[in-house]
Design a protein that fits this description.
This protein is an alpha/beta fold. The protein folds into 4 domains: about 5-80; about 85-185, 2-Layer Sandwich (Beta-Lactamase), CATH 3.30.450.20; about 250-500, P-loop containing nucleotide triphosphate hydrolases (Rossmann fold), CATH 3.40.50; about 525-570, Arc Repressor Mutant, subunit A (Orthogonal Bundle), CATH 1.10.10. It has 19 helices and 12 strands. It has helices at about 5-25, 40-80, 100-110, 110-115, 130-140, 185-265, 275-285, 305-310, 330-340, 355-360, 375-385, 415-420, 425-430, 445-460, 470-480, 485-500, 525-540, 550-555, 560-570; strands at about 85-90, 95-100, 145-155, 160-170, 175-185, 295, 320-325, 365-370, 390, 400, 405-410, 435. The strands form 3 sheets. A 5-stranded antiparallel β-sheet has the order 2-1-5-4-3, with helices on both faces. A 5-stranded parallel β-sheet has the order 7-8-11-6-12.
Length: about 575
């Protein structure tokens, strides 16, 4: 029931009473006593009173009908108010409960009488009371609807979650204000929200855990991929190295068979002459070093055999000697032979080829007849000797190598330099340790040994038995100047063995001495050796022994150098005494 209804009813009855009294006073105006009223006036007055009585009766019936409807409406309103799904409460400005419906009482688990007259804050959970005070303050200050969520207490101090919507209601007569509130139980919703939040938190945690597991798995997978990538790279590198080694071994195999033949020939180097012994002595001196060697000598003197001897006596002897005949290869192919080429480097280059420098890795490379190289190739060769690196044709990739270089030539490189056909800087790089192989005409005492060795070799090969050489034949062989040197001697002996019918060797060729003198620009062994020793002595101011002495520079023992000086007639000039 609305708290204003009793007051309104009382006011209505008071107004009706006042109206009736005013009506009666109006009717009896001017009459001192009713006995003085004329009969006709009395009849009219009675009639009016009767009519008015009827009107009052009718008004009372209408009022009773209206009152019945009001009571019926009030009962219906009270039922809706009390049993609404929402708890309703009316508070004073100070927060005292003035009225509350049964729904709110049921929510709090108490009788309605327990609520009325109590501070609403008593039924608010302790931790949420500050939120209620702030809501009441804002509501009274702004007189605008306010909302908050808080926990309300039930019987036995059990709490439930509630939604509170409040508004200010004023009285038609004074400024007295009430606070009307609607309370909804949102415990289930709140529990569902908490459950959802907990589920979401659990899901997020599981997602984080799963993400961490996946991240770990991805990291492990990335590590495995990296490991496989490195393994694949290592495998590719190993396959590349194997392919390279295969190519190198195939190339080395060719040179190895050739080296075996050369070694066999080196074992057959025959001679007792001082000039040959000096050459072999020089070869023994330089072999253990990594020094570049330049072997000089006429065609056919066996320069390649001396190169093979140096290699065989060197620490690189376990690898095959690689030889390039610079005079036998066309100029357009010699570069790819030396440095290799990539596929497509030039027209016709349909495969990759490794060069002789790569094949000779860790070994010795003999550049036979180096004087035949073009100036362009000489520059590239100089770079390899200086920096131990080069590039294949058609590639910008630099290849590092460890190769010892032995060069041979039948040319006078000093004159080639003057003619502009050989680089001076390359000559200095090659001429670190020169060895001059004497021509056969300067070692005639070795001719009989060589003749018998060649006879034995070819007679055995052809199944013949030759036991002697006439003195006249041997004299012819000794007196011949041999412009083709040992190679020419071997060819003549081979032909003689082929055509020899019996055990005595007879020459098949008539050896004619050429009337033309030998080229004056070809120095003899003794001249070359004498000039080299003399130049070294002049540079050291005739200091033979000690550090930086001539013997140390030439790689000779001081006593050996003195013996060679005595044999070559090298004498230190006496200082002139002024007159």
């Amino acid at each position: 029931m609305d708290v204003k209804e009793p007051k309104v009813k009382k006011e209505r009855e008071s107004k009706l009473r006042q109206s009736a009294e005013e009506k009666l006073k109006e009717v009896t105006t001017g009459m001192a006593d009713l006995s003085e009223v004329p009969p006709e006036r009395t009849a009219n007055l009675i009639h009016e009173l009767q009519v008015h009585q009827i009107e009052l009766k009718m008004q009372n019936e209408e009022l009773r009908r209206i009152q019945g409807e009001l009571e019926k409406g009030r009962d219906q309103y009270s039922h809706l108010y009390d049993f609404s799904p929402v708890g309703y409460v009316t508070l004073t400005e100070k927060g005292i409960i003035h009225e509350a419906n049964l729904t709110l009482a049921s929510m709090c688990g108490v009788e309605r009488s327990v609520l009325v007259g109590k501070p609403f804050s008593r039924f608010v959970f302790r931790d949420d009371q500050d939120a209620f005070y702030k809501l009441r303050h804002r509501l009274l200050e702004t007189e605008k609807s306010q909302h908050c969520e808080l926990r309300l207490l039930k019987k036995n101090d059990h709490a439930f979650f509630a939604s509170l919507d409040c508004m200010v209601v004023k009285n038609r007569d004074d400024d007295f204000r009430f606070i009307r509130g609607a309370v909804s139980d949102i415990t289930e919703r709140h529990l569902i929200a908490e459950a959802l939040q907990e589920a979401q938190n659990g899901l997020e945690q599981r997602v984080e855990e799963r993400t961490a597991e996946l991240r770990t798995a991805n990291e492990n997978l990335a590590q495995e991929i990296e490991k496989h990538r490195k393994s694949e790279e290592s495998l590719r590198k190993a396959l590349s190295d194997i392919k390279k080694l295969k190519e190198q071994l195939e190339a080395e195999n060719i040179y190895f068979r050739r080296e075996v033949k050369i070694k066999h020939q080196y074992n057959q180097i025959l001679g007792q002459s001082d000039s040959l012994r000096h050459v072999l002595f020089r070869a023994e001196q330089v072999a253990p070093q990594n020094t570049t060697v330049l072997i000089l000598g006429e065609t056919g003197t066996g320069k390649e055999l001396i190169a093979a001897a140096i290699h065989t006596m060197s620490p690189r002897k376990d690898r095959p000697l690689i030889t390039v005949n610079c005079a036998a290869l066309p100029a357009n192919l010699i570069e790819s032979e030396l440095f290799g080429r990539e596929k497509g480097a030039f027209t016709g280059a349909d495969t990759r080829q490794i060069g002789r420098f790569e094949v000779a890795q860790g070994s010795t490379l003999c550049l036979d007849e180096i004087g035949e190289l073009s100036m362009e190739l000489q520059a590239k060769l100089l770079r390899v000797i200086q920096h131990n690196e080069f590039e294949r044709l058609g590639s910008s990739h630099t290849i590092k190598v460890d190769v010892r270089v032995i060069a041979t030539t039948n040319r006078n490189l000093e004159e080639e330099i003057l003619k502009g056909r050989f680089r001076q800087d390359l000559y200095y790089r090659l001429n670190v340790f020169p060895i001059t192989v004497p021509p056969l005409r300067q070692r005639k005492e070795d001719i009989p040994l060589l003749v018998h060795a060649f006879i034995e070799r070819y007679a055995k090969k052809m199944g013949k038995k030759i036991t002697s050489v006439p003195k006249g034949t041997m004299k012819v062989l000794r007196d011949y100047p041999w412009p083709g040197n040992i190679r020419e001697l071997e060819s003549i002996i081979e032909r003689a063995v082929i055509l020899c019918p019996g055990p005595v060797l007879h020459l098949a060729d008539k050896l004619v001495i050429s009337p033309h003198p030998l080229s004056s620009d070809m120095k003899t062994l003794e001249e070359t050796e004498r000039n080299q020793i003399l130049n070294t002595l002049l540079e050291t101011r005739w200091c033979i022994e000690g550090k930086n002495g001539a013997a140390e520079i030439l790689g000779l023992h001081p006593s050996t150098l003195r013996a060679r000086m005595h044999k070559l007639g090298i004498v230190r000039p006496e200082a002139k005494v002024p007159d």
